[in-house]
Design brief:
- This protein is of the alpha+beta class.
- The chain has one domain (about 5-100): Trna Endonuclease, Chain: A, domain 1 (3-Layer(aba) Sandwich), CATH 3.40.1350.
- Helices cover about 45% and strands about 20% of the residues.
- The protein contains four helices and three strands; from the N terminus they run ααβαββα.
- It has helices at about 5-20, 30, 55-65, 85-100, and strands at about 40-50, 70-75, 80-85.
- A three-stranded mixed sheet has the order 1-2-3.
- The longest helix has 18 residues, at about 5-20.
- The chain is globular, with a radius of gyration of 14 Å.
- The termini are far apart.
């Protein structure tokens, strides 16, 4: 991976971490954790120029999940960030927070 790609990824991790009030997990490669430290979410951050391989990114988040909910936060250049998660996990949130009563 070219150094500028690494720097771009680290910068995006910091950006998302600041937005969520979380810190980067600096030892993620060694420990196999996600990009951001969170007790119930395994968060992978992906920033690309053109397209993000969502299935590959989700597989990476699932590998690091260890009982947590895998989430991919991603953005391509000149676009908004998006969040991807399994439908079953999203439905649990929907039932808990947004389902009409």
């Amino acid at each position: 991976m070219p150094i500028n790609s690494r720097a771009k990824g680290a910068s995006y991790e910091r950006e998302v971490g600041e937005a969520l009030g979380l810190v980067r997990q600096l030892d993620q490669c060694r420990d196999g954790g996600g990009d951001l430290e969170h007790p119930t979410l395994a968060i992978e951050c992906k920033r690309r120029a053109v397209t993000v391989n969502i299935p590959q990114a989700m597989a990476q988040a699932e590998r690091s999940a260890a009982g947590r909910v895998p989430v991919v936060i991603h953005r391509v250049d000149k676009a908004e960030s998006l969040v991807t998660m399994r439908l079953s996990d999203w439905l649990a949130l929907y039932d808990q927070h947004w389902r009409p009563r």
